[in-house]
Structures are given as C-alpha cells and as structure tokens.
Design a protein that fits this description.
The complex is a heterodimer of chains A (about 650) and B (about 325). With about 650 residues, chain A is an alpha+beta fold. Chain A folds into five domains: about 70 residues, 2-Layer Sandwich (Phenylalanyl-tRNA Synthetase, Chain B, domain 1); about 190 residues, 3-Layer(bba) Sandwich (Phenylalanyl-tRNA Synthetase, Chain B, domain 3); about 70 residues, 2-Layer Sandwich (Phenylalanyl-tRNA Synthetase, Chain B, domain 1); about 140 residues, Bira Bifunctional Protein, Domain 2 (BirA Bifunctional Protein, domain 2); about 80 residues, Alpha-Beta Plaits (2-Layer Sandwich), CATH 3.30.70. Chain A contains 20 helices and 29 strands. Chain A has a five-stranded mixed β-sheet with strand order 4-7-10-11-12, with no helix packed on it. Chain A is elongated. The two termini of chain A are about 70 Å apart. About 0% of the residues of chain A have low confidence. The longest helix of chain B is centred in the last third of the chain and has 16 residues. In chain B, helix 1 crosses helix 4. In chain B, the strands form three sheets. In chain B, strands 4-7-8-12-11-10-9 form a seven-stranded mixed β-sheet, with helices on both faces. The chains are: A alpha+beta (about 650), B alpha+beta (about 325). Chains A and B meet through helix 2, helix 7, helix 11, helix 13 and helix 14 of A and strand 2, strand 3, helix 1, strand 4 and strand 7 of B.
Amino acid sequence: MKISYKWLQSYFEEKLPAPEELAERITFAFAEVESVEKKGEDTVLDIKVLPDRACYALSHRGVAYEISAITGLLKKEMHWPQPTISKVRPLEVSVEAPELCSRYMARVVENVSAKKLPWVKEHLESIGQRSINPVVDGANIVMFDMGQPLHTFDADKVRGGIVVRRAQRGETITTLDNREVALDEETLVIADEDTPLAIAGIKGGKKAEVTASTKNLILESANFNASYIRKTSERLGVKSEASKRYENKLSPEWAAVGLNDFTAYLYEMDTRLSAGDITDIYPTPQRQHTDKLENVGMSVGEGRKISVAPEYISKKLGLKVSGADIEKVLNRLEIGIEKKGSEWTLTPPHFRRDLVVPEDIAEEVGRLVGYDKIPAVLPQRIEKDAVVPKSFYYEWKIREVFTEAGFSEIMTSSFAEKGSVAIEKSLAEDKKYARPNLRGSFAKALAMNAKNTSLFGEKAVRVFEMGNVFQNAGEHSALAIGVAGPRKKAADILESSVATLSDTLGAPLEGEIKKEGVVEFDLDVVFAKLPEPKKWDIKIPPSKAEKFQPFSFYPFIVRDIALFVPPETKPDAVAVLLKRHAGSMVVRGPELFDEFSKDGRKSLAFRFVFQSQDRTLTDAEANAAMERVYAAVASRGWKVR
Amino acid sequence: MVEQRFCKAKVVGSNPSTGSTMFGVCAGYAKGSRFKSGRRLNEQSAPLSRGVFCYRMIRMKEGAQGGRIHPISRAIFDIRAIFAELSFEVAQGPEVEDEWHNFDALNIPKDHPARDMQDTFWLKEPKGESLILNPLSLTGSQGLKIKDKRLLLRTHTSPVQIRYIEEKLKAGLKPPYRIIVPGKVFRNEATDATHEAQFYQLEGLYVDKEVSMAHLKGVLEFFFKRFFGPDVAIRFRPSFFAFTEPSVEVIMSFKGKWLEMMGAGLVHPNVLRAAGVDPEEYSGFAFGGGIDRLLMVKYGIPDIRMFYNGDLRLVNQF
C-alpha cells in the first residue's frame, strides 16, 4: 500500500526519522517497504502489508500505529469538529442478511454544497489516486486515512429506504465504472425499495451515484463478512479498495469512527449542511459476544483475552526479554495488560483481529524488540547417524552408478499431454495430465541433446532421469535411461549399463527398450526387494561449476581440419595456433579426434564448433574463420590434407 | 577408438590418469534378468553359465567425460550432508496430496486464496479405481492415508511435516524430530524466468521440548554459511505464514546484496495439534525455501525453466 510520508507525519508532533531510515525500520519490524519514492515535496513509501496485518494496517492511521510502536513516538488522536444533529428526511434501514453484514450504519446529510478543499487533491495524488468529486474524494480520503470503506448515495435518487439483502436471480446492476453485472441469490446488495444500488462492500452502482450537483446524501459505513466478500469479488471479477479492506477482516468498530470522520470532512467542506441522526444496525457488537460472532462466520478470537507469561515469550524467542521490556512493547501496541502473578491477561485493541494465541504475542515482542537481538544457537547434537529413507538412498546409488558409467542426470516436466491423472485447470494443452511415465518428455530431451553432441564432444548422449509418475493405481518413483548415438553402440551401452546397475543393486531390473532408445523402470518395485541401507556411503564426482556459463540457443556449425605436421610436433602446440586464428565464435575446440603417423609424417585431425551468442551463424562466417586457420597452417609450412 | 576386452573380474571404475573413463559393464548375466523385450546379447558375451558374470571393458576416448549430476540433485546431496551434521534426517512424502495434509492440517483457512484454482493444481477425480497415495519413502509401506477426497499436486513440502509426525507417533516415537524434506512442489501460475509450475523446495522441521527462534537462527546460519560460504550473513524480517507463528522471512547478504531466501518460524500450535503433538508440551520450528533459488543465487543461473527442460548444456556445467 502506498503511504505518504507527509500524511504520516501529520499523526506525530515529533519529527519522524528520514524516509529511508523509516523504511528500513518498518521493513525489519513490521512489513517490507518495496520502494521509497520522492514525489515533489513528499515521499511515498510502498509498504507490502502482510495478509494477517491487513485487517488493521491498510491505512495511514494503521501504519502510524505501527510506527509509534516501532519508534516509541507518540501518535496523535484525531478529532475534528462535528456538526450538531439536525432534522432531516427520515431513513428506513433494514438488514435482511445479518450473517453477511455484521454492522450497517447510515446517516442522511442534506443541503450540501460541494466544494473542493485545497488539501484533498494533493493528498489523493500523493498516493496515486485521482480526484473524482468533492464528496467521493472525502469518502476515499477517510478510507486511506483510517481504513474504513465508506459509500455515499444521492438521497434524491433513492426510492424508499435502504435494504441490505441478497439479490434476486435475474437482477442486474450497472456499476460506477459502467459495467453491467448479473446478480444472483449468492450476492449481497444494498438496495432501495426497487432495485440494487450497490454490490455490498464491493462496488457502488450508477443508479444513486453522487455527482457534482448532488445536494442530499445518504452516507454508508458498514462491515461485511470477510470470507463472503473475498469469494464474491473473485466470482464477479470486481475488486475495489473497499473489498480489499473488507476481505481482510476489518474491525466493525471502525465503522463508527469512519462515519464520524467522513461527517467531519463534509462539515469542513460546508458548515451549513444538515446532518441527521445515525442509524446503527449492529446486533452483536464485537467486544461483547465472542461466541455469537463465531456463529455468524467471524474468526475466532474477537475481543478475546490472551493469557501469557513473560517467561514464555523469552522461551519462544530464545532471548531473555525482561517483563518491563515486554510491557513497554505491549503498551505501545495498545494491548491491555492485567497481571496476576507471573500470568498476564492481555486484551488486544479491537482492530488487532490477528492476535489470537500466545504465539502471536511472542511475534509482537520479537519483531519490536528486534529479531537481530536473537542469538544463533545450535540445538544439542544427537549422537546418532541421521538416517535417510530407503528410496532416497537407492536413488543416490543409481546416480552414483550412472555418473560413473558416463550418464548425466536430467529433469523434465512432470506434466504430460496424455495420462490418467488429469488436472482440473491445466496451464496448457500439452500439460493436461500429471505424467503417467517419464519416457514421454524424456525421449524428447534425449533427441534434443542428441542434436548437440558436437557441443559436448561426444558421439553418444547418455542420460537418465528419476522422478515420480502418476497412474490410476497411484504414484510411483520411476527411472528412465536413454542413449542416443550410433545405433548398435547405443543399444550396447544401454543394455550393459542396465546390467551393471542391476548387478550393483543386487536386484533384477525389468524394462523394455523403446525404439527411441529409452528404457524405463518402476523403482518402487525394485526398491521393495532391497534391504534397508546401513549407512550413507554415496560418492559423487565433485562439482565443476563456480559460476553458470550462459550458452547460446542459436544453431552451431561444426568444421574439421586434418593436417600433416613433422613427427616431432606436439598436437597441443598445433591446437594453440589453430585456436589463435579461429576467431571469437569458437565455442568448443580445436579438439584432437584423430592422430596417426605415416611415411615420416604425422597426421592430426581437429574439430571446431562455431556458434554465436546472439544470432544464427552463417556458413560463410564459419568458412572465413577456417580460411584464417588454413592460412596460419600454411604459413608454418604444414599441409592441410 | 573403442577398445574392447573381456574378463571375468568385476571391475567398475574410472581411470583418471589417462583422462578417459573405463567402465566395466556386465554384458552377459544370469538367466532371468534379461529385458522383457529380449534383445539378444551379442555373441561374444553370451551365453554364460548361470550366475557367472562377464565384464566387457569398453574404453572410449571420446566418452572421456564422466556423467554429471543435475544441479538440483547435487544441491540436495550437499544439503543432506550439511544437515546430517546437525542430526537432521531426510524425509519424503507423496507429490499427490490430499487437501487435508496440504492445507487444513497446516492451519490454512478453508477460504484462503492459496486454495484457489489459480494457485493449486487440483486433480480431477481419477477414473476407475481411486488413486492411492504411495508411501514414497516414509518408513511404513502400507500406503498413505487419504484424509480428504480432494486431491492435488502438493503446493509445498510442508504436508510432509504432518505425515512424518503421524508416522512417528503411529510407531510410538515421540519428539524430538529433526527432518529436512527436499522435494518437488507445484504451483499453478504463469511461468517466467523466476516462476515455474514445478520446482524443488527444502523444508525443515525441528520439534522438541523447548525450541526457540534462537535455534532457528542457529540452524539456518549454519546451513547458509556451509552452502554459500562463510562470508554470508542472515537476518530475520517479519513475515506471515499460516503454519508458523512467529513467522519470518530469512534474508541473506550475498555479494553485497540482501536477498530473500526462505520463509520460517515457530510451528503454529494448530499444526502441532493437527499432527497429534501437544503444543503445551512441545514446540518446534519449520522453514521452507526454493532449492532452485539457492542454485540460481549461488551460480547466477538466470532462468528457473532451464532446470526442467532436460538440457545437458546446463547439467554438464555441474
């Protein structure tokens, strides 16, 4: 959420730490600050409010509360002048679905002459909001200031009273952004005696829209069931700043504060307005009837007391925190403390609906005392070898055997075009199933790698993969082995490698070589026959990598050169010379692949692989490089065969 | 180029002095252990009497390179070794999970957005006989209990926390438990250079009489310094996960930058309770992070999708 530094400062008499420093402290005690951006005279902090804290911190006041807790600076209480109650038109309000609407407050305000307040535009723009009209701007300002969503209807466009009810099938509403939305019984609406005026808690409608000429208003400040709002806004595809706040379990206590602040705003705009009495339908006030609230789908722990001992907090944190320090943190968080010996009974403020269990209190103390203060302590060693699961051990045995036999391990997609375990909503047409076997994508990977053999300097590609596959009968671990290369040789390598593995494990492997040169085994079947491993004795070749070397996805070109040199000439020396003249596109080579002596001369054959990092190399470019190499060879008096 | 000879000795090994790999292979083997397809072994190596093995030595100049292990596997190899020093065992669980283990038991509310279609790969009801979750490597082998009809591809390795504890308690083994769970997880989200529908997670769990945030810091600092080198440092930052409280993000300074590496915290009492452990008596810490991410940071690998396209141009570098 975007937070204006200046706006935030208005909550404090004392000067706040500079924006960058403040951002750092917020990040390590409250929530990550994603950016700090200078905007004219102001600075905007983008704070990634965590989901559990979104019930109280999606506002400047919520963030000011946190800053007060972090820094110890005193946060001001905001009070603005309120109009005296006047006689206005009567307003009938009824809530027909109290399970979805825990509180509904409304107030009629008449004879409003809307005018722009000088500070409003600046406030809205600082946090990336645009100004709409003075009344709507006021509702938004209050929401961004203290977190309560507010709505305003043009009282002259409302027929009869306000009803909070479920929509009827077939009803529609045109929202403020001119979208026609079809409604059903699942959807809660705010309606007059004829038709819906708004999708409750989510979006206002056109019918009673407040415009620049609106004179008489009905103000709404309410609270809706969080889980209902989330599901409905998701289902309808309509999201708003209001729905975002409601779905995070905003405290219904805020409704009254929000309505007062909004009234004060309108009063500042026009002191001659007439504000009527407040209608407040709030059958189960949060702080009194915890059990009832649970029945209407509110979360556990509203108005709950939490019992915790200071010693418990130190134990959880692994850091000795004194009772006095804990008390200081709790005071700053406005959490009430009642001490009975070593047991403290805590009462969180109404808006901290995230605080339910003692562990929540440990987190509050931990983050505000500072996680950096927690020492790093290793748990006591256990004199016992750490065991590994049987399948884990034998999978590593397979890796050991195969890498020694020149096979490399690859991983491919766990999804497949065909199979028996179907995914409800897949990412793509060819990923509709959890893979029924490895060989599908494994064979494709084998073929792809076979095209790159020159890059690896090998004639045959030898790969294997282990992973889980999914069939109707269940999930099992599988092994696929594949060799691509000269046909007979490939089959030989494959067969003999399987035999080696079978021998090493001491269990027969049963599989079938497919025409792509791939064989696959059910490892669960194999492992079932093997004994429990005694100890971890797996050895693998050390890693070569320090840093990843980017490789090109463009085609490469292979060129060979064979030449006669005097018998005493060292192949390495020749390679160095060739390399020096071959240019910058050489990605592999020159590699000696043939060497023989005949008639007092030595024949050497080298292979180059050319490739560009950023384009497809042409034959002409490869030829030009080879021409330079030939010239260099000739200048030495050597002869190209 | 390919030199062959035959011997009856059992030789499997390499010859680093010549720079070439010598691998001894069993080319003829006892009856009954042939492939089903029955491709005949070539004449020189067969037939042999029952139980006698013949090893054909193939010396290949070209095939001089030994095979390479996938970087993800190699990371798991290293991670196992590091945590074994602290007596953490490896545990595993199924990739197809039920809703209860993946969400409910981990204190994730019924209407949590993570359960939505866009984050989770839900499975259609399997045809024919119903899908049974297999016991991949948990000690028992009688099949895993399905607590819930709705099945999914696990979105994290955390359900293994629950499965491991259930398994231990069934066998009458109370805490302490110290496990790491390296395993594949799935997220239904658009893929790009840093997001992939499948990736590997490293989960850690320690349950004992008095486990604190200090232990969490100790263990993670030990791990990160071993994995990345002694110069790295870690810090905790507040975070939120339904299954831990307090919850922290673990950030690491690496080459002058602070990077988010893992989520962690003390196991939420509701999670312990769901697994059958009394939170009044025991507490625990848990952590979880992407193994892919560990590698991308350590080696500067730019794209997570490279791990899963089977390309040896990546694997051969490790």
